[in-house]
Write a structure and sequence with these properties.
five-stranded antiparallel β-sheet, 5 strands, 203 residues, alpha+beta
């Protein structure tokens, strides 16, 4: 049975020499969206290379590259942490330090460090400036490193929510993601407290 090759954010693919003893090239996937893949090559220029997903898969097949690091689990990617990781990766690929990025955007270095650790704070109003300096669209900062879209069956309310979400501008999308994340955490904590048995009251 033929298995379908699944590509994901954070994967590292390593190609070896004909003898199999020397590493030829290590590619890490840093963005994956709309059938396009952006990757960086370890030990070489930090400037990313963007190609089609089909071309990337062809490279894997031609070089017999091996998956040496799996994709980041979806559960580990919260909107804040995901955005912070994107800012850091894109900054590194642009060859900028936190201080250099801060100066170009007109903010403090501590703000960049704050964002890169997953605390988005007031990043929303600087999305345009960040995107311009990093050479990407604002949408890429929000969704460029998300897993590729797959077919899914949606309930009517999910379909309505998705249609409305797609009409929002990038800043409002970020706020919506953060609000949903807070609601999920609140629901989880309420669920745990409800399951915790209470000690009997002393009379």
């Amino acid at each position: 049975m033929k298995t379908t090759l699944q590509l994901g954010l954070g994967q590292k693919w390593t190609s070896y020499s004909a003898s199999g003893r020397e590493v030829r090239e290590v590619r890490e996937i840093v963005t994956l969206a709309a059938g396009r893949i952006c990757f960086r090559i370890e030990g070489k220029s930090l400037v990313p290379t963007q190609i089609s997903e089909a071309a990337y898969k062809a490279w894997i097949k031609e070089t017999e590259a091996v998956l040496t690091k799996d994709a980041i689990p979806q559960a580990q990617l919260s909107p804040g942490l995901e955005l912070g990781r994107r800012i850091r990766l894109l900054r590194e690929m642009a060859g900028l330090s936190q201080q250099q990025l801060a100066e170009k955007v007109g903010i403090s270095r501590s703000a960049v460090a704050f964002w890169e650790t997953g605390r988005s704070g007031h990043v929303g109003k600087h999305l345009g400036g960040l995107a311009e300096v990093l050479g990407v669209e604002p949408e890429v900062l929000l969704t460029g490193m998300a897993y590729k879209a797959i077919q899914a069956t949606l309930t009517p309310d999910e379909d309505t929510m998705l249609a409305l979400y797609r009409q929002l501008d990038p800043l409002i999308k970020l706020q919506a993601q953060k609000w949903i994340e807070r609601r999920v955490r609140l629901s989880e904590s309420e669920g745990k407290s409800a399951k915790t048995p209470r000690s009997p009251k002393s009379t």
